[in-house]
Specification:
The complex is a heterodimer of chains A (260) and B (557). Chain A is an alpha+beta fold and 260 residues long. Chain A contains twelve helices and five strands. Chain A has helices at residues 3-7, 10-20, 43-50, 119-124, 136-140, 147-155, 159-165, 174-177, 185-200, 205-215, 220-228, 231-240; strands at 25-30, 33-38, 69-73, 81-84, 95-98. Chain B is of the alpha+beta class and 557 residues long. Chain B has two domains: 2-32 and 328-440, Flavocytochrome C3, Chain A, domain 1; 86-324 and 444-509, FAD/NAD(P)-binding domain (3-Layer(bba) Sandwich). In chain B, strands 5, 6, 9, 10, 11, 12, 20 and 22 form an eight-stranded mixed beta sheet that branches. In chain B, strands 14, 15, 16, 17 and 18 form a five-stranded antiparallel beta sheet that branches. Chain B has a three-stranded mixed beta sheet with strand order 13-19-21, covered by helices on one side. In chain B, α4 (107-118) packs parallel to α15 (479-501), α6 (154-164) crosses α7 and α7 packs across α15. Chain B is globular and about 75 Å long. Chain B starts with a strand and ends in a 13-residue tail after the last helix. Classes of the chains: A alpha+beta (260), B alpha+beta (557). The interface between A and B is large, with 89 and 98 residues.
């Protein structure tokens, strides 16, 4: 290695190396049409590489919004598979089609009037009982949610369990797209989670306590002091404020209670 | 072939990390810390922070904040023409009409729509992508509120917000914010948001960067998604909220009385420009990560392109705090599938070292966010970053140390979300380090408003990331989710009142757009650029070179 080469940073060397190593292209079929794209890209980036301008089928690009539900099939395999386009890496010869929208039934309701009774879900979504427990929904879930178990919980009137099991649902609709009974699982779960959050989980009563004191105007004077403080004074108050230790338990109390 | 799930390319680089790990672990066990920087050293280091790079910004030559120096990427959009010739839009034909037009479809917009509707308004939400496709959906960390009287109060929340923002924040806005935070949580709870709670219903809470009390509340590690799902679901139940998806606003419309009275919407699928008339308008379009300021990757969703800042500015609203942009130090560089993805600070808090290409530590892991980011950038500029075979560069976050220090399985249990995503990509982060680099995270500033969400344009209200003032020069973790709730509600209420009591019927106009064009010309800005951008362009250069259509012919571009 020459002196000059030696002084090259690894990053610079890598750029040089990259020029020597051709990017490996693999064939994929976007809605049946063949394109060659670099291996290692996600389906979404591969489509953009190919020249597709995405308006639908693309949202957060980080696996949380559910905009880019995609079905694909690999050669020699009858099985239809599902993924999020922003998460799944392309594989040679995969056939790809996106499902950016799926027409499903969503019940309308006045949330304030709903109770935690199991019948609420039954009445709003009677198709719940069309579930034949085939488990296609669970197999289709890119989040790994036990979709069918959550449906069963709802059928049994166990709203809390349905809420818990479905908590990380991104509402992409892939479960629905594969459902024999034509259920809109993700809307049913949304209903379950809201009922759980507002009617079943114990209420955070300390919020009302705090609001009462705030509404009585207890902190107004303190806040006025802060608003009028000069920058130097504010910096001093900031630096001297008591910091709750990282390891403190829920029962920790500060020494200075003047501003509480 | 792969090494610990990484392609072979990385084997020698990971080898270096493994080689120095035992000695680094030994130092950790002895309690030896890499020295923190002094205040002077920090100041020096911040010169490497993108915000402090003078060549990264320039003065805006036109508009209400003329002379303000902000990032080129923002100025490029502000020194651009409208997407439409203002004279060609037929303002006498109204395509949509509502009492309150809400522009945007994320948390702030949806919450504003709910409250405006409750206040008696007919509401139209116009949004660029789907309802809910927004940064709100991606927020993981939590939502700040002083809710526990025995140890916390709005006083302390106020101090923390100001300290985080370099004491430059708008005091009135901050005071309203901290006072309404608890009520906002209660409102969310009543709608059915599943907060993480103790068995007695008390909200769990933790520290965030810059908090003096544990007041970060959360819904597991999906706080933003849970809030967004619930408010969107509620909006869908309301008969007086209509939603237009794939229809971004490209200009605000004023009327002859100078009031904001609607917007020109663009149907992205039919390519029509349509007129929406309203008695009041709420602009809640979110942030700008997809502008990739100074070439940075971003944690933001696809539509974060500063549209609201552009159209609000043209309508005469000045900017506040747009000179600062938040970069999170640890965004994923590789694997590319999750490029830009946020890696929480907790990895560093649990003992994972940051090391360079030689496997050496070069920074304390708990410097402030802006300082830490600047230090990573410097290391890479000095040629000591770790390259990727795709031409990128980063530094290692040595996550396997966490299992060694705290016991086997710690990474998988304490960071289950991150562990799962990497695992799906074939990498076990309890065995292999993570390659990270600062990532564009949040637009600290935006359109200037007051604590009532009012702007200089009567009838135009703003809420959420599109505004500037609450966070000053630097936002603290957990204050953006609370921002959208507190000020989404205020904007919704005030817009409905304006629509009912102050809005005057009058001739619609785009004169401000024509005037803006004249001002551009006068400033000597000759350009074909149009704004807002709406969506980033990720078409490969190879394809672009071949897109040669001269002009539209038949039905084909």
């Amino acid at each position: 290695m020459s002196v000059k080469e030696k002084n090259k940073s690894p990053a610079q060397a890598a750029v040089k190396e990259k020029k020597q190593i051709a990017v490996k292209l693999i064939p994929i079929y976007i809605m049946g049409k063949r394109y060659e794209v670099p291996e290692g890209l996600t389906i979404m980036k591969a489509m953009e590489y190919a020249g597709y301008i995405l308006i639908r089928g693309c949202g957060c690009r980080g696996g949380t919004c559910g905009a880019c539900g995609t079905v694909y099939r690999k050669p020699g395999d009858y099985k239809l598979q599902v993924a999020l386009a922003c998460q799944k890496t392309v594989e040679p010869d995969m056939y790809i089609a996106q499902i950016p929208f799926f027409p499903v039934n969503r019940a309308l309701y006045h949330f304030a009037e709903l109770t935690a009774a199991p019948e609420e879900a039954f009445n709003l979504y009677p198709e719940l009982f069309r579930c034949v427990a085939c488990n296609s929904c669970t197999k289709a879930c890119p989040q790994g949610i036990e979709v069918m178990d959550a449906v069963s919980a709802l059928k049994q009137g166990n709203i809390a369990e349905a809420a818990r099991l479905s908590f990380d649902c991104i509402q992409c609709g892939l479960c629905t797209s594969r459902c024999f009974g034509e259920l809109a699982q993700y809307h049913m779960f949304q209903l379950a989670r809201r009922i759980y959050g507002a009617r079943i989980a114990p209420a955070a009563e300390h919020l009302a306590d705090m609001m009462k004191v705030i509404n009585e105007g207890k902190y107004d004077q303190f806040l006025d002091e802060l608003k009028q403080a000069k920058e130097d004074e504010l910096k001093k108050m900031y630096q001297e404020r008591e910091v709750e230790p990282m390891t403190a338990g829920e029962d920790w109390k500060p020494k200075d209670t003047k501003y509480l | 072939m792969s090494y610990l799930g990484y392609t072979d390319f990385f084997e020698p680089y990971i080898g270096k990390v493994e080689e120095t790990r035992p000695a680094r672990l030994e130092r950790r066990r002895r309690g030896e810390e890499f020295p923190f920087m002094s205040l002077e050293e920090r100041e020096e280091m911040l010169k490497y922070h993108p915000d402090y790079k003078e060549e990264g910004r320039r003065e805006i030559k036109v508009g209400p904040s003329k002379g303000y120096r902000i990032a080129h990427e923002f100025v490029d959009l502000l020194e651009a023409k409208s997407r439409v010739a203002p004279d060609k839009v037929d303002l006498s034909t109204v395509d949509y009409e509502a009492d309150v037009l809400v522009i945007g479809g994320g948390g702030a917009a949806t919450i504003a729509a709910l409250i405006a509707e409750e206040s008696g308004a007919q509401v139209l939400i116009a949004t660029k992508l789907r309802h809910g496709d927004a940064n709100t959906m991606m927020a993981e960390g939590g939502i700040q509120a002083a809710t526990k009287r025995e140890k916390d109060s709005p006083y302390y929340h106020y101090l923390d917000v100001m300290g985080g923002g370099h004491f430059r924040n708008d005091p009135d806005i901050v005071a309203v914010f901290v006072k309404q935070a608890s009520d906002s949580l209660q409102w969310l709870e009543s709608l059915g948001v599943m907060f993480s709670k103790f068995p007695d219903g008390r909200l769990e809470s933790m520290h965030g960067g810059g908090t003096c009390r544990k007041r970060m509340h959360y819904c597991a590690d999906l706080s933003g998604m849970e809030i967004m799902r619930v408010v969107r679901d509620e909006a869908r139940n309301r008969p007086n909220i209509k939603v237009l998806e794939f229809s971004p606003a490209v200009e605000l419309i004023l009327n002859e009385h100078g009031q904001c009275a609607g917007a020109v919407l663009y149907n992205m699928e039919t390519e029509e420009y349509l007129v929406a008339k309203a008695k009041a308008v709420i602009l809640a379009t979110g942030g700008a990560g997809r502008l990739h300021v100074q070439g940075f990757m971003s944690t933001n969703h696809y539509g974060a392109t500063a549209d609201g800042v552009v159209i609000g500015y043209r309508a005469g609203v000045p900017l506040a705090f747009m000179h600062t942009v938040q970069y999170h130090p640890t965004g994923v560089v590789f694997p590319e599938q999750i490029e830009g993805w946020l890696i929480t600070e907790r990895f560093r808090a649990e003992g994972a070292d940051i090391v360079n290409v030689r496997g050496e530590k070069f920074v304390n892991e708990r410097e402030p966010r802006d300082v830490e980011s600047a230090r990573f950038i410097k290391e890479c500029l000095d040629g000591k970053g770790v390259p990727t075979h795709t031409g990128k560069v980063g530094v290692w976050l040595d996550s396997p140390m966490i299992d060694i220090l705290h016991g086997e399985g710690r990474v998988q249990t304490a960071f289950v979300g991150k562990w799962k995503v990497y695992d799906r990509l074939g990498i076990d982060i309890s065995k292999a380090p993570m390659l990270v680099y600062p990532t564009l995270h949040y637009q600290n500033g935006g359109l200037k408003d007051n604590a009532e969400c009012e702007t200089v344009a009567p009838g135009l209200y703003v809420a959420g990331e599109v505004t500037g003032g609450l966070h000053g020069e630097n936002r603290l973790m957990g204050n953006s989710l609370m921002d959208i709730v507190v000020f989404g509600r205020i904007a919704g209420r005030n817009a409905a009142i304006f629509a009912r009591e102050k809005a005057k019927e009058g001739k619609l106009t785009l004169k401000h757009v024509k005037d803006y064009h004249k001002e551009l010309k006068k400033a000597g800005i000759e350009t074909d650029r149009v704004a807002p951008m709406l969506l980033p362009d990720y078409t490969s250069p190879e394809v672009k070179e071949k897109q040669l259509t001269v002009s539209r012919l038949g039905n084909s571009r």
